[in-house]
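Illustration: YihY family inner membrane protein.
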Amino acid sequence: MPAKTGFVTRLDQLLWSTADNRPRWQRSLLGFARLLHALARDLTAGNLRLHAMGLVYTTLLSLVPLLAVSFSVLKGFGVHNQLEPLLQNALAPLGESGQEINTRLIEFVDRMQVGVLGSVGLALLLYTVISLIQKIEQAFNYTWRVEHPRPFTQRFTQYMSVLLVGPVLFFSALGLSASLGDNVYIRSLMAVAPFGVLLELARVLAPYLLISLTFAFFYVFVPNARVRIPSALVGALAAGLLWEGAGLLFSTFIGGSTRYTAIYSSLAILILLMIWIYVAWLILLVGASIAFYHQHPHYLDGRSREPRLSNRLRERLTLQLASRIAGAHHRGQPAPSQEVLATSLGMAEQALDQPLQLLEQSEVVVATEGGGLVPAQAPERIGLAWLLERIRTFEEESDGYRARPADTALNALESRLDDNRTQLLEGLSLADLIEETESPTST
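Result:
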């Protein structure tokens, strides 16, 4: 037991040690290890799994309406015949049960006549489909640390774009890749040795690339965050690889097993479908987490999912933000955004939420329309003693806490500390802090 404890302690120290002075390959290896730790932490914490479980129910409820809407849209572009083979590929890990589920779903879609539903039925149909996308956005927003969803009007337009444009692009690409194999010129190129090998490799990799591009489309457009395309592609390629691997394992060990049929009888098909949908959503959310950590690597520097600051660091960080924002304005530089400030400080962007909220409520800084931050008043008018007092008492009046009963000794001690701080900082303003920070002798 002591040896194991020592090994775990050594591994923990190695994982969270400073990597600035290490060679590049060691920094990359350490970053990959921290990424694995973050993914394992997010999965074991339960929140990603809970979102995946909730999406299973919503998917089962809206699967047929979603296919009906997609079928109607695709039919207008003449690629609706691609729906059945793609659905069959998605359900392939279920084995024979997947073929039966595919047949039943296509029958339901064919029998559903949108024209006879009426306005109320059509509205309910669209609501069921949009609720699925809304549930997906909530899961992605959790992954991307987004607390506020889109406004309703923006949400509706984004959802309709995903619903109408997404299937068209995906199935068009699928149809294009399928038609290349029947092209005369492509066949003639396949007769040439180098091109034949490359085209055969492209044909094998086409399903993986197509599912990865579909994941990337969701990562970019669904969450209420600005997702960079390279980060979305990294997460999508990782999720696509997990999809292919999980499909192979599922079809080998679960889809082809007869135990579920022996236990659940006719319900075995539904049970297998629910398990595969859960695995699929979990893979999609893991890919979203990888995309997030690729775009925000500072979140990998801490042991916990949410950044934690002590009282001292909270005071220091708030003063740093105020001096950097005011200093950039004083030097005539562009107004820094929260993302730029987080990058320059080497911190997670979410750790700046509370300090920036404090500065805005105290009318020290103000946000511009472009998302930049500028001083709300002249730095000479912002006393450091007053600003520190605002930092120490932030949100005291909102939570309703009151010291009961009053402690005379503690009140006297706090008064002495406040008086000493005020006396020490008397006459000093934010402008003095900026000047001291920019002086050559400052460290």
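Reading the tokens back as a structure: The chain has 18 helices and two strands.
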